[in-house]
Design a protein that fits this description.
Pfam families: Fn3-like, Glyco_hydro_3, Glyco_hydro_3_C. Belongs to the glycosyl hydrolase 3 family. By secondary structure, the protein is of the alpha/beta class. The longest helix is centred in the C-terminal third of the chain and has 41 residues. The strands form 9 sheets. Strands 2-7-6-5-3-4 form a 6-stranded mixed beta sheet, sandwiched between helices. Strands 21-22-23-25-28-29 form a 6-stranded parallel beta sheet. Strands 15-14-19-20 form a 4-stranded antiparallel beta sheet, with helices on one face. Helices cover about 30% and strands about 15% of the residues. Strand 5, helix 7 and strand 6 form a beta-alpha-beta unit. It folds into 4 domains: about 90 residues; about 220 residues, Glycoside hydrolase family 3 C-terminal domain (Rossmann fold, 3-Layer(aba) Sandwich), CATH 3.40.50; about 200 residues, Sandwich (Immunoglobulin-like), CATH 2.60.40; about 300 residues, Glycoside hydrolase, family 3, N-terminal domain (TIM Barrel, Alpha-Beta Barrel), CATH 3.20.20.300. Helix 1 runs antiparallel to helix 26 and helix 19 runs parallel beside helix 20.
Length: about 1000
């Protein structure tokens, strides 16, 4: 009896444990299943799982085809174009005869960065480049012998410990984690005797002694990493310097190179403009310098080709390179400032969460430099010094600017002749021509840049209009010219390029009365000198060099014209002020922010401003869920859920305004629209009612990548957007675009989050690597060509970040204060060119606010300019606006309100969370105005997808039916199994308890 009792007791204990265990597992599985189902969109993307099945597809219905028969052919072409891209974009800054290196030269690669080249920026450009050649491999491939002792020292020896921190990239928002961490000179040792050297490298334990045998040249790599989420620091770096100046270890390393080598060649592996005084400092003895940007997968091969002369460099700088970057007026107050009444704990007012979230919601930034960004500042103030005007002070151009915008050397020389310019009234454009002749001894390409100068008049001064001394308005690149060969380059400059925006009186684009100059120049500084020479100025007036008046053309406009360019050439819509609310005066804050003016350089120099968010500003900062309908609206609800027999396959190739769209849209349900709009995270959702497939959309400023969605597959990382712009070659950029389009077509993707179009407002922006340039015209033209190439393969691009996302510090919902001329001429111009000339289908909004209004809720931006003035028919997506995997983001992204965004013209939210879809269904269903806005957004998305490669295989008869993904079935089965087991264990436990009670009762009766 005692033994049986023990068995009964042990049975109860066993099933008690099992019941609790499986109950916990069952509960965990149920919760996990619920969370997974809530994030089903993200899970499906990560697992590449289909949630639908297609019927009646047609293999012959191919609207966009790859240019290649195999992946091997595609990747071989990618490699070829990627190498050409760096070959034409890398900029030769200096060459005292050190380059090209002779075949068989023995070289030493100095710096830890030489074994850890930066290939991509971080965040959205993070592409797997593990198959990229090392610098050593690239150099050896072109016949150079690379110092193995030094290489091993960095890779496996004592030098391996000096790595950039944190690792490959930047910890988001953590500037303190920045470390260049170059190897100190002391770690290399000291020279041993010549007899030891003669004995062979095997006997040498001192690294520095290996320099003698590999002493033809030192190739020194200087790298800087930048990326999404944080700006670079100046004046607050860990060792007291700034990130874009050389660290002490780098200075010592260059001095060591100067002592040990006859030739010192520097590779600048950075997309943020370094302070370049060291290149001409005798202490460092730099003989040649090549800016190489971020090299992508194959760019180092081109760098090696340039070093040995297989490729003649032809790139031109996309930024002004200075001795001291802090001379830029945009750096005053560059890092965001908090409103003086900001209280991070007051989330009801500020919708902010600690440690991230809407980190900019209580912050502001003031674009006090106005239009004077990059060369527009440096060259304009220089001209005013020469002309003795504008209270320019003691500004000394030569001590400030190391290399001007557009600068770049070659291994050959070119002569320009036969400059001519004519105006054609019929096309309202100028034809600028110049003949380029290769007068050197090797073949090469030359870039011709055309700049204009417009008059700075009394009308401008009275109305707050600013004018740069020169602005880029055209460029072209020759074919490869053999020695002695010539090519006549003709560049068309529409007269509209000469306009400026008058936000005060005309409130539109005007063409001032006065004299305009057009000049063909080698760089921006050359352009100013040419114009000054045409005006009669010389070096005696303080010019840095004599200009060439023969390379200029003067055009006189008799009277101010405020009519010709007041309507859009793209759409015919009236152009007028849209951004008055980006100024503090709009909110009643007077005399706080002064915009830099060339009428008084010293008197209007930017100052750090302190600003309190008044009630009017706070009201616009906190629009979340305040939409309660349109007063007096007579809008009717649209038809939804009809059965018209339409499919998206029927709409392929049809115009945006085709009447069949209404029949199709009538079939869509409210819930489907809410899902399509509210959950646009890296996809557009399927729609069963019209048989619309889901799409794959993902990142790609340097080529298509799905790293952020957990997928590593990619074909090629191309060099960064700085290198792309530095080619000054629109034909090459269109081919780069086609390569990216082919890559995406092969990988089954339809939408690209890029190109990125913001401006290098200063050298310190964390995302300068994915923005083309400091110049809006160059950025727009290069982007337009790349976009044409990408979209030729049925890929729709989301040009980003629209707009004013020119800083990463506190960028999420930061208030950006700027005047309309600045916004239009500097920051919107690249987007305008990309849409009107490149045909960009989509935009991705920025986190930034125009004044206090989030970009996505700014109707002037999203509807009146983007659609009204520019004519974009595709759709607008927010920047990241929520993911159910991150609970804090439910609060964090509240300012991206779905109602206000839709009413303004935003169409889709980059989110996989339920928040926005739920808001539409639970808060706004039944509102006719908002429902009509949802229908319009749905129209734009469906139109874009209908004309993309997502429709390959679809015809009018193709149907989509819903299927349950395998992982959902697996989770359901797991829940059921665990539930059943839990119940069985509980049943067993109950039975065991009952048996024990029965046995106990029987035993008691027997006694």
């Amino acid at each position: 009896m005692e033994s049986k009792a023990k068995k009964k007791g042990s049975g109860i204990a066993l099933f008690s444990v099992l019941s609790v265990l499986f109950a916990v597992l069952f509960a965990a599985a149920c919760i996990g299943t619920q969370l997974a189902f809530a994030s089903s969109q993200a899970v499906n993307i990560a697992l590449q799982t289909s949630t639908f099945a297609t019927k009646n597809t047609d293999d012959e219905a191919v609207y966009f085809e790859s240019d290649f028969d195999s992946v091997e052919e595609l990747e071989a072409h990618d490699k070829e174009i990627a190498e050409q891209l760096t070959g034409e974009g890398a900029v030769l800054l200096k060459n005292d005869g050190a380059l090209p290196l002779a075949a068989g030269s023995k070289v030493s690669t100095l710096s830890h960065s030489s074994v850890d080249i930066v290939t991509c920026g971080t965040g959205s450009a993070d592409i797997d480049t593990s198959n990229a050649p090392t610098l050593k491999e690239a150099l050896e491939e072109v016949g150079l012998e690379v110092n193995p002792v030094l290489w091993d020292f960095y890779t496996t020896g004592a030098g391996k410990d000096y790595v950039r921190s944190p690792g490959k990239g930047v910890s988001l928002g953590d500037r303190a984690a920045w470390h260049i961490n170059e190897v100190p000179v002391s770690a290399y040792g000291t020279n041993v005797s010549a007899s030891d050297v003669a004995a062979g490298l095997e006997s040498i334990t001192d690294v520095r002694s290996s320099f003698a045998q590999y002493g033809d040249a030192a190739i020194v790599t200087i790298s800087r990493v930048a990326g999404e989420g944080a700006d670079l620091e100046y004046g607050d770096y860990t060792d007291g310097t700034n990130v874009l100046a050389l660290t002490q270890e780098e200075q010592d390393m260059l001095k060591m190179a100067n002592e040990e080598f006859d030739k010192v060649i520097v590779l600048i592996n950075s997309t943020n403009a370094l302070e370049c005084g060291f290149l001409n400092d005798p202490a460092y003895g730099v003989d040649a310098a090549l800016w190489i940007g971020y090299t992508g997968t194959w760019g180092l091969n081109a760098v090696a080709d340039i070093l040995v002369g297989n490729v003649n460099p032809s790139g031109k700088l996309v930024d002004t390179y200075c001795y001291d970057n802090t001379t830029a007026p945009g750096l005053v107050g560059y890092y965001a400032q908090a409103y003086t009444n900001f209280d991070e704990a007051d989330t009801a007012t500020w919708y902010s969460v600690a440690n991230g979230g809407l980190d900019g919601n209580g912050y502001y930034i003031a674009y006090q430099e106005g239009i004077y960004v990059g060369y527009r500042y440096y060259e304009t103030r220089y001209e005013d010094v020469v002309m003795g005007q504008g209270n320019a002070g003691d500004y000394d151009y030569n001590s400030v600017v190391a290399y001007p915008f557009g600068y770049g050397l070659s291994y050959t020389t070119f002569d320009w002749s036969g400059f001519s310019t004519t105006y054609d009234a019929a096309s309202d454009s100028f034809q600028v021509s110049v003949t380029v002749t290769n007068t050197g001894s090797v073949a090469g390409k030359e870039v011709v840049q055309v700049y204009f100068q417009s008059p700075y008049t009394d009308y401008d001064k009275a109305n707050g209009i600013e004018k740069a001394s020169v602005e880029l308005c055209g460029f072209d690149k020759t074919e490869t010219l053999e020695p002695g060969a010539s090519e006549t380059v003709t560049i068309t400059v529409p007269r509209s390029e000469l306009t400026c925006y008058d936000a005060t009186t005309a409130k539109t684009y005007i063409l001032d009365a006065g004299d305009y100059y057009l000049t063909a120049a080698h760089d921006a500084h050359d352009a100013v000198n040419n114009v000054l020479a045409a005006k009669g100025y010389t070096v005696e007036n303080g010019m840095t060099a004599a200009g060439d008046a023969a390379m200029t053309y003067k055009y006189t406009n008799a009277a101010l014209d405020a009519e010709t360019y007041s309507v859009s050439a793209a759409t015919g819509a009236e152009i007028t002020n849209q951004f008055d609310n980006a100024s503090l005066e709009y909110y009643g804050v007077e005399d706080t922010m002064t915009t830099l003016s060339r009428s008084d350089w010293q008197g209007t120099w930017p100052q750090v401003i302190e600003l309190e968010a008044n009630d009017a500003i706070l009201a616009d900062l906190n629009l979340y869920q305040t939409y309660d309908g349109v007063d007096g609206s007579t809008t009717e609800m649209p038809t939804m859920g009809a059965d018209n027999g339409m499919t998206l396959g029927m709409m392929v190739g049809k115009a945006y305004d085709d009447p069949d769209w209404d029949l199709l849209l009538d079939q869509v349900t409210f819930e489907e629209m809410a899902e399509l709009i509210g959950k646009g995270y890296h996809n557009t959702a399927r729609m069963l009612s019209v048989s619309k497939p889901a799409t794959v959309d993902d990142n790609g400023p340097q080529g298509f990548t799905q790293t952020l969605t957990g997928i590593s597959t990619c074909h090629c990382a191309y060099s960064d957007e700085n290198i792309m712009a530095a080619t000054f070659n629109v034909e090459l950029m269109e081919e780069v675009g086609r390569c990216i389009g082919n890559d995406m077509l092969d990988l089954g993707a339809s939408g690209l989050y890029g190109p990125a179009m913001n401006i290098h407002r200063t050298a310190y922006s964390g995302r300068n690597f994915e923005y083309y340039s400091e110049d809006s015209f160059l950025s727009g033209k290069i982007a337009a060509s790349e976009i044409q190439g990408i979209q030729s393969k049925g890929v729709y691009v989301y040009i980003k970040h629209f707009a004013l996302n020119d800083t990463e510090s506190h960028c999420r919902c930061i208030s950006t204060w700027a005047d309309e001329q600045t916004i239009r001429e500097i920051y919107l111009e690249p987007f305008r060119i990309a849409v009107t000339e490149g045909g960009a289908k989509n935009v991705m909004n920025s986190f930034a606010r125009f004044g206090a209004t989030w970009s996505g809720a700014h109707k002037g931006l999203m509807t009146n300019v983007l659609r009204g003035e520019w004519g974009m028919t595709g759709f607008a997506l927010t920047d990241f606006s929520g993911n159910s995997q991150f609970a804090a983001y439910g609060i964090m992204m509240k300012s991206f309100d779905v109602a206000w965004g839709l009413m303004a013209g935003t169409d889709s939210w980059d989110s996989s969370a339920e928040q926005w879809t739920d808001d539409l269904i639970n808060l706004y269903q039944g509102d006719p105005d908002l429902t009509q806005a949802m229908r319009q957004a749905t129209h734009r998305i469906l139109y874009t997808v209908a004309n993309s490669n997502a429709m390959n295989g679809f015809t009018a008869d193709t149907r989509i039916v819903s299927v349950t993904p395998w992982w959902q079935i697996a989770l359901i089965v797991l829940d059921v199994v665990l539930g059943v087991v839990t119940v069985l264990c509980i049943v067993k436990l109950v039975l065991a308890i009952r048996r024990k009670k029965a046995n106990t009762s029987a035993a008691q009766k027997a006694e």
